[in-house]
Design brief:
heterodimer; A: about 375 residues; Rossmann fold; 5-stranded antiparallel β-sheet; 8 helices; 21 strands; about 35% strand; globular; B: about 600 residues; mainly alpha; MetI-like fold; 2 domains
Chain lengths: ~375, ~600
């Protein structure tokens, strides 16, 4: 029932401007949820729409279950309705002139499915999303969260081999988004469907995805399991986008397998993790999560003296601005107590596995 | 001590100021209501009276009419088979015309908004072009093209050796010409509805397995159904009130619709003013019902769905078929603009309309300026142009000022009585121009030494007729000015009138000017209400054109049609130019 998705060297060039998709390749094994994550304009939605057949790629190949559905080079372009996939849209796209049941049964009517079978499948789909009691309501009488559930039921009712979700939660309010996010993964896993999910919200991506692909400027930068994305980001952008917002600059002194020693200037040296193949004397940038800076706990080799510049108490955590090596860094201390005063010099420990060194490829590699 | 006295005198002064202001607003509302009663309520009341009596207002005067009130006259009219026939013809012609209009309007809105047809901007422009054609001129042009014996189309068919003949002097001709000229009303509603539709609603259908055609009929059209029905009703309403087209195409075969029938009644001798009033009431009731239905529909919940992000226009790739849709656009343009214009030009410059064969069509010796010379030899021609312009100027200035006063009172003040002002000033929406004419006839013909026979009765009738549109257009021009701009002036110490003079009018000027120019153009081309109100001294262009047509001289009719079209074209161009200025002003204001 569920299918694999294979995207090979996908390209999409609109009539003007840079390519929207610039050589993206990835595969999704059957039953897996892959999340495409990236800032707006990175090409993630265009990629999804190319898989759906709503957008026509200008290069590369897309195959679903081994069947090529799009290949400009060999002139293949299967229309969306023949690709046997389901899609959930950002704006729900439930049809306001129909009831919940009419919305959900619509795809079955175009698939030559008997009336009794169709009715049963609609009931099952509505039960899955928890809307059984709402079947005969007009959809305009539903809340945003319920509309999105209708859209989900409609996209799954015919058991498509592949489900595409285009920022399905971004139009919902924050609380509902959190609840539906967890529900969504349960429902998807329950049906065992292969899914491709697009979002710009990293928290959503981590919770939902079996694997996450981070995109930027039409390129797929890294595709891996959430913990690898979070603990071994492939480059500075991925590190920054997934929350490692601090950055230090230095020069690599020695390499030692996965780790190396970096000079931060004025002879201050520390040990870092090498996320790319780097050679001594190369200029490097180091990404560092605010949560991984431990203030006032001298521990291990990488302990430096820093000055607390400011403090913002946030209830369950406290954010500090500290000065280290002449740069301002953000640090976060968990817990409801704020322990450090503004203006004091404190010892900060930077664990080496949390300092990710990347090649310095010029200024402003990200914002 | 001293301060307290000051304060007391201040309090007294502001109290007396408050009384004065209340007196002024009371007077203001009363004045507006009086003007509206004079313009709208009184004529409609007299029309009603006329329908319910059997006396002649000219001979017997109002006094006697009042004493002869009875429903019998109205019932007699209802039982009259001629009235029933005219009503039936009207419903068939307008119904058929509406079907064609919906088909064309829907097709073009889909072509323009949803496909990759080449030169879409051009097709979009062609789709609304017929709005600018005066119905009488369109009727004349199609009479020249489609007359069963001498029509240019039949001449062409004969030359091509085809046995095909068309006859537009028929119900079919009426339906056809109605349909092609009133499609823009449907187009305007449906194209904007399509444009505002979230494209993912259609994409979802496509993903669900529906073919493009199935998507169109199960999702797209049902979703824009409110817009389709509104456009349909509006085009039906407009067709109901049109006189020019059925007058030209229906006359030769004695095919009457309500409008032409009403005019005939007043032209018999003795004129049957009572019957005309009763039939006019029928027309007004039908129109009123439809307008009510349409307003109800528009105020109801629409299906327009709002999403967070801006829509990327979704356009269907038609492949080679896009040249077919392009060709459809060209054919439409050919039918509504090019062919009629050519027909008018040929007829206007040709000495004799009899065309033996196609070779003679291109024989330059057959062409001359003789018809133009003869129409301008007629002193009535120049007088009718002069009169039309005079009526137009009065209507634009007086009507514009009145509409501004009404619009401002309704939208920007909280005076009591503004609800009544709003209601009465929108009432004429449901009154076809021709009915306004009959109502004014009834209102003033029996009043000796009054308005009847002057230019002013025409101007007042036009002001009343176009009041709802003018108020709406003018209101948008000052509703775009942020309220705070006015409040700032009040805080600075300007009074209400001072604020209007120094802030509102200067900012709204381009929009106000454009609305007034539009009113001017509408007044110049108005035929329906003029028919009953002109005398030989106050003859206006549109009526004289009808006169020429009924006189039977096609050459002169065509020549005068061209003169009018060119004049109107220049005026509409000017109006567009003015409103473009206003659009730029709006950008400056909001940006």
């Amino acid at each position: 029932m569920t299918a694999t998705l294979e995207v090979t060297d996908l390209r999409k060039q609109f009539s003007i401007g840079l390519p929207a998709i610039d050589g993206v390749s990835f595969g999704v094994p059957a039953g897996e949820i892959v999340v495409l994550l990236g800032p707006s304009g990175c090409g993630k939605t265009t990629t999804l729409r190319c898989v759906a057949g709503l957008e026509h790629p200008t290069g590369g190949e897309i195959s679903i279950s081994g069947r090529v559905v799009s290949s400009p080079a060999s002139g293949i372009l299967v229309p969306p309705r023949s690709r046997d996939l389901g899609m959930v849209f950002q704006s729900y796209a439930v049809w306001p002139h129909m009831t919940v049941r009419q919305n959900v049964i619509y795809p079955l009517k175009h698939r030559k499915i008997g009336r009794t079978d169709a009715a049963r499948m609609v009931e099952e789909a509505l039960a899955l999303v928890g809307l059984s009691d709402y079947a005969d309501r007009p959809v305009v009488a539903l809340s945003g969260g319920q509309m999105q559930r209708v859209a989900l039921a409609r996209s799954m009712v015919y058991r498509p081999q592949l489900l595409l979700l285009d920022e399905p939660l971004s139009n919902l309010d924050a609380k509902l988004r959190l609840r539906l996010r967890d529900d969504l993964r349960v429902i998807l896993k329950q049906t065992g469907m292969t899914a491709l999910y697009v979002t710009h919200d990293q928290a959503e991506a981590v919770v939902l995805g079996d694997r996450i692909g981070v995109m930027r400027d039409g390129k797929l930068l890294q595709m891996d399991t959430p913990d690898v994305i979070y603990n071994r980001p492939a480059d500075l952008f991925v590190a920054n986008f997934t929350g490692a917002t601090n950055e230090l600059a230095g020069t690599l002194v020695t390499c030692n397998g996965r780790y190396g020693v970096v000079d931060f200037g004025n002879g201050r040296q520390g040990e870092v993790a090498l996320c790319q193949t780097l050679k001594p004397d190369e200029k490097v940038r180091i990404a560092l999560r605010p949560e991984n800076i431990a203030i006032g706990r001298p521990d291990g080799a990488n302990t430096f003296s820093a000055k607390v510049l400011d403090r913002r108490y946030q209830g369950t955590q406290t954010a500090y601005g500290i000065e280290l090596f002449g740069k301002r860094l953000e640090a976060i201390e968990l817990g409801t107590a704020a322990r450090h005063q503004v203006g004091v010099e404190a010892q900060v420990a930077l664990p080496r596995e949390c300092l990710w060194a990347y090649r310095d490829s010029g200024p402003a590699s990200h914002d | 001590m001293h301060g307290q006295a000051d304060r007391r005198s201040e309090a007294m002064r502001s109290a007396s100021e408050g009384t004065r202001r209340r007196a002024f607003t009371g007077l203001w509302v009363a004045a507006l209501l009086a003007i509206l009663t004079f313009l709208v309520i009184y004529p409609v009341f007299m029309l009603l009276l006329g329908a319910l009596t059997d006396t002649n207002p000219v001979v017997d005067g109002i006094r006697l009419s009042l004493s002869h009130l009875s429903i019998a006259n109205f019932l007699a009219v209802l039982a009259n088979p001629n009235v029933a026939e005219a009503l039936l013809n009207t419903l068939i012609a307008c119904g058929g015309g509406t079907v064609i209009a919906v088909a064309i309007g829907l097709l073009f809105s889909w072509i323009v908004v949803r496909t990759n047809t080449p030169f879409k901007g051009f097709i979009a422009a062609a789709s609304i072009l017929p709005l600018f054609a005066p119905p009488l001129v369109a009727g004349v042009a199609w009479a020249i093209l489609g007359s069963p014996k001498t029509g240019l189309i039949n001449t062409m068919f004969k030359w091509m050796g085809s046995d095909l003949r068309v006859d537009l002097y028929s119900m079919w001709g009426l339906v056809f010409v109605f349909g092609i000229y009133y499609a823009p009303y449907v187009y305007m509603f449906t194209s904007s509805a399509l444009r505002n539709m979230d494209p993912s609603l259609e994409e979802a259908a496509e993903i669900s397995g529906a073919s493009p055609v199935a998507t169109l009929f199960t999702v797209t059209f049902p979703l824009i159904m409110p817009a389709i029905v509104s456009g349909m009703l509006l085009s039906f309403i407009v067709m109901l009130g049109i006189y020019g087209i059925p007058a030209v195409l229906g006359a030769p075969t004695n095919l009457n619709v309500l409008t032409t029938y009403i005019f005939k009644l007043t032209n018999w001798s003795p004129p049957l003013y009572n019957t005309a009033a009763a039939v006019a009431i029928i027309l007004m009731v039908v129109t009123g019902l439809l307008v009510y239905l349409q307003q109800k529909l528009l105020s109801g919940r629409s299906y327009t769905t709002v999403a967070g992000k801006a829509f990327r226009p979704r356009s269907l790739d038609l492949g080679p078929w896009r040249w077919l849709t392009f060709a459809i656009g060209i054919v439409y343009l050919l039918i509504v603009v090019v062919l009629p214009s050519l027909a008018l030009i040929v007829a206007a410059f040709r000495k004799f309309m009899f065309i033996r064969d196609v070779a003679s069509l291109f024989d330059m010796r057959q062409y001359s300026l003789t018809h133009f010379e003869s129409i301008f030899d007629n002193p009535l021609t120049m007088r009718s142009i002069y009169n039309a312009v005079e009526v137009g100027v009065i209507t634009a200035v007086v009507g514009g000022a009145l509409a501004f006063a009404i619009g401002y009172t309704i939208h920007r003040t909280r005076v009591s009585g503004r609800g009544a002002i709003d209601l009465i000033s929108t009432l004429p929406v449901a009154i076809p121009g021709l009915v306004v004419g009959v109502a004014y006839l009834w209102a003033w013909i029996g009043v000796p030494g009054g308005l009847y026979g002057t230019i002013w009765i025409l101007a007042l009738a036009f002001i009343a007729r176009f009041m709802p549109d003018t108020v709406k257009a003018l209101s948008t021009s000052f509703l775009q000015i942020h309220r705070e701009l006015e409040e700032a002036a009040w805080v600075c110490g300007k009074g209400m009138l001072g604020t209007i003079r120094t802030i509102v009018l200067p900012l709204a000027r381009p929009g106000v000017l454009a609305s007034m120019t539009l009113l001017f153009v509408l007044a110049i081309r108005e035929l329906g209400s003029s028919l009953f109100l002109y005398t030989s001294n106050t003859m206006v262009m549109s009526v004289l054109l009808l006169d020429y047509y009924e006189g039977g001289n096609i050459g002169k009719t065509a020549a005068f049609s061209l003169v009018q079209t060119v004049l109107l074209g220049v005026l509409i161009g000017g109006a567009n130019w003015l409103s473009r200025g206003s659009a730029q002003g709006n950008v400056a204001r909001t940006g």
